[in-house]
Amino acid sequence: MSTQTQSKKPSAKKHIDIALIGNPNAGKTTVFNALTGLRHRVGNYPGVTVEHISGMLLDSGKQKIEMHDLPGLYSLVPKSLDDKISSDIITGRSKELEDVRLVVVVADATNLSRSLFLVTQVVELGKPALLALNMMDSAEKRGLTIDVDILAKKLGIPVIPICACKNKGIKKLKAQILTQVTQENGKFEPSNFCFDAETKNILQPIQSWLQSNTSLNNFSCYAEALRVLSNDLTLENWRTNLENNQFAELNKTVTEVRQQLETKDTKWHRMESELRYRCIDNIYSETVTEVNIKKDHFSEKLDRVLTHRVAGPIIFVLIFGAIFQSIFAWAEVPMNLIESFIGWLGIQIAGIMPDGVIEDLIVDGGIAGVGAILIFLPQILFLFFFLSILEDTGYLSRAAFIMDRIMKGVGLSGRSVIPLLSSFACAIPGIMATRTIRNPRDRLVTIMIAPLMSCSARLPVFALMIGAFIPNIMVGFLTLPGLLLLSLYLLGILAAVVAAYALNRFGSKKQRPSTFVLELPPYRMPSIRWTFLQMWERAKIFVTDAGKIILAISIILWFMASYPKPATEMSSSQAIKQSYAGQLGHVIEPVIKPLGFDWKMGIGLIASFAAREVMVSTLATIYNVEDADENSHTLREAMRNETDPDTGKKVYTPLVALSLMVFFVLACQCMSTVAVVKRETNSWRWPIIMIIYMTSMAYVGSLLVYQGGLLLGLS
Amino acid sequence: MHTKSELLPLDNLKPGTKGVIDEIKKNGIDETDLMEMGLIAGTPIRLVKFAPFGDPLELEVRGYHLSIRRSEAKSILVNCSE
After folding, report:
1. What is the reported pLDDT for A4?
2. Cβ–Cβ below 8 Å for A300 and B48
3. How far apart are CA A624 and CA B82, in angstroms?
4. Do A651 and A635 contact (CB within 8 A), yes or no?
5. Mean pLDDT over the full length of chain A
6. HSE on the CB side for A542, CA within 13 Å?
7. In the predicted model, is pLDDT for residue A5 greater than 50?
8. What's the structural domain count of chain B?
């Protein structure tokens, strides 16, 4: 008897959606690339920030088959945002992708037992499905012989053995997909094998409720009933999809069944896992022959060094040290090139265009703004190049394994380590790298503290202030400037620890703390093509999405620094004084006076909201020093000689410099970061909270330093 | 023949020890997270090592490697036969 949804005849609809799912590390991405080539489309799921990648499997005039690469998951019970998206689409709860014609499940043949958990769940949905059994060659090398035909018979869905990284079996897989979407499911009829008569009896009340009150097909009602019974998260997931009174009814039915089971001392929350693995163990023993099992000695031997008690952490530090060093060193050349190119472009355009407002807007607002975006691109590309390789090889999981103990101290997990380390180079790629964090609460906290890691853009400001005001004397075996620089970095880390603790304590309590479950996959060769594809996608997202916001803010800042136009010819320092930015500097002077700052620094602070390094060029403009950079002696001297016209005292003292540096460590002064946070959290709420909490911390920090210093008699 | 067997929480095992999961206790942890990954009563298991700073730990189960924290591992009782 056919119980599945065969009423849905392959319609005349030209566009067919199919879904690709699988466990993380099953090689799903490789399969996706092999099937769709480079014809990708990256989008966002509406309302959430998880990426949605799809590609055309077939695009003939008559028919289009679009394959959706869903986030990897271990079970249809949703634990994170990623999981929920995949599971909603597969189970037909998603409103975005309602009609998935076929579900292609990718499983790792070397890891069949655990992979079958998700596979059996999918089969029991009763939707047309097929299993792509990946890494067959590795399985054979290990001494595992899998009888594909018996497996297909047992599961009731077609099974295609493949080896995606060598492009083996891909043609057959594609042909099978086309057969299944264009024809009926053929001779295959999925069985709900996990359910014996006794289990069906227990599930009956929930099953019949689901059958008569939801759009689930008859076939999948048993599976859904089991999941709802065993797991509160699945039950909760129904709340959003049902009317209130309906949900109450379901809840009541489930509670009754649970209570009944409790009287018989049956642990209902274990039912799904236990039943499923019992049935998996049966399938496994009938389909897999293990002869001379060879363990993955290579990975284990490598781990003997890479996660060794002493060598592990040392290698970790060396690897990331080398990566950051190369980001700084290698990115500098293209960054300088971009900078010169933008400068050159500005001059060229200024040369062609007639002088006037439009020219100023395009050159000082538009092009300068675009420059501010593009300047970060080399660092982003380099970081993602290395991260992608580390992720593909499997080292990233080891990094999380090594560092988890330390991160647990601040309420995070090992998965936050990489984004936070990346943020020392630049918070933007760091924040974008938080997508590897599966727990949404951890991800949010990591995004919120990432900008406190002192990024490379703070360095020019530190260099200017330290160079001008901190005497080069030895303290122990370090110089005072070196020691101070180190302390500034440590201050940022300390502030991040405090912020993480506070956010975990007071913020977003609704999210449950998740269990730390991390797979350590075997080491594998990275795919260079995929690495470059990922770099390209990240860069595109950064330039297009964050770019728009950065451009808008640059134009506003340009306007404020250039208007109102001076009535008479005057120097640029005088012009900036009477501009809106200058006026604003005077307005905020009373507020920043307790920190030891005057209105000129106020302008710098306002301008450096755009980007921290703008501080140096703004100060240079105000002091009217041409071509100043952080090593410029003239700017340093101008600042050292600056005196207060009223009191005749020096404006800049080492204490003021210290106060200013503390402000720069703690304040959120980077519109690119704000734009990226807006994009990654999909709301203005978190970027606004970030600006407020970081700026408050910066104010209080500087206040304590300056006023404390004055009390101690420093000046 | 009666072999000597011992019931131990997983985090008390020495690296390299093999055993069979006897029970997963509910100690305020979400045991379904662990069970879905294949940690079921009756499943053979091997403790591979502890992470450099003592936590988390690495297991081999069902032919793959998995890392969980000590706080979760102590809820897993393992039957170690020697």
Report:
1. 39
2. yes
3. 81
4. no
5. 81
6. 28
7. no
8. 1
DSSP label at A423?
T
What angle (nearest 5°) sits at the alpha carbon of residue A669, between those of residues A664 and A674?
A: 145
CB-CB neighbours of A408 under 10 Å: 17
Supply the pLDDT for residue A1: 35
Q: What is the pLDDT of residue A3?
A: 38
pTM of the entire predicted model? 0.80
Whole-angstrom distance, CA of residue A485 vs CA of residue A466: 8
Amino acid in the structure at residue A153: K
The answer for A266, left when phi > 0, alpha when psi is -120 to 50, beta otherwise, is beta
Report pLDDT digits (tens) over A340-399.
888 888 888 888 888 777 877 777 777 777 776 677 778 778 877 887 788 788 898 898
- pLDDT tens digits, residue range A141-200? 888 999 999 999 889 899 999 998 788 899 999 999 988 887 765 556 666 667 778 888
Selection from A195, A161, A414 nearest residue A288 by Cα: A161
Of A442, A204, A280, A179, the residue nearest B62 (C-alpha): A280
Looking at the complex, report in whole angstroms how far the Cα of residue B40 sits from the nearest Cα belonging to chain A: 7
Phi, psi of A625 (to 5 degrees): -100, 120
CATH of the domain at B18: 2.30.30.90
ipTM of the prediction: 0.93
What's the CATH number for A15-182? 3.40.50.300
Compute how many other C-beta atoms are within 10 angstroms of the C-beta atom of residue A168: 16
CB pairs under 8 A between A and B: 118
- Chain length of chain A: 715
Mean pLDDT of A38-59: 62
Q: Which amino acid is at A206?
A: I
Dihedral of CA A644/A647/A649/A653: which sign?
negative
Distance CA A607, CA A603 (A): 6
Domain containing residue B17: 5-81
| Residue in B52, B56, B62 closest to A114 by CB | B62
CA geometry: angle at A647 spanning A643 and A651, to 5°?
Answer: 30
CB contact under 8 A, B68 and A308: no
Overall CATH class of domain A197-290: mainly alpha
* Residues linked to residue B81 through DSSP beta bridges, in sequence order: B5
Amino acid identity at A539: A
Q: How confident is the model over A110-121, as a mean pLDDT?
A: 93
Query: Out of B34, B43, B53, whose CB is closest to A517?
Result: B34
Over residues A546-573, the mean pLDDT reads: 73
Q: Where on the phi/psi map is residue A162: left (φ > 0), alpha (ψ -120 to 50), or beta?
A: beta
User: Closest to B29 (Cβ–Cβ): which among A74, A77, A515?
Assistant: A515
The whole-angstrom separation of Cα A193 and Cα A280 is 10
Closest residue by Cα to residue A658 from A714, A602, A617: A714
Strand ranges in A554-605 using DSSP code E only, listed in sequence order: none
> What are the distances in angstroms from CA A622 to CA A569, A581, A618, A625?
16, 11, 6, 8
State yes or no: pLDDT of A288 exceeds 50.
Answer: yes
Q: Which has more confidence, A61 or A476? A: A476
A84-105 pLDDT, tens digit each: 778 888 887 776 777 888 999 9
If you compute the radius of gyration of chain B from its CA atoms, what whole number of angstroms results? Answer: 12
Q: What residue spans in chain A does CATH classification 1.10.287 cover?
A: 197-290
Tokens of A213: 């009150």
The predicted structure's pLDDT at residue A41 = 61
Element (H, E) at A58: strand A51-59
pLDDT of A6 above 50: no
Tell me: the pLDDT tens digits for A425-468?
Answer: 778 878 877 876 777 788 899 999 999 998 877 877 887 788 78
Residues of B in contact with A117 (CB under 8 A): 36, 38
Count of H-run helices and E-run strands, chain B:
2, 6
- For residue A606 the two structure tokens come to 């306002």
DSSP A567: S
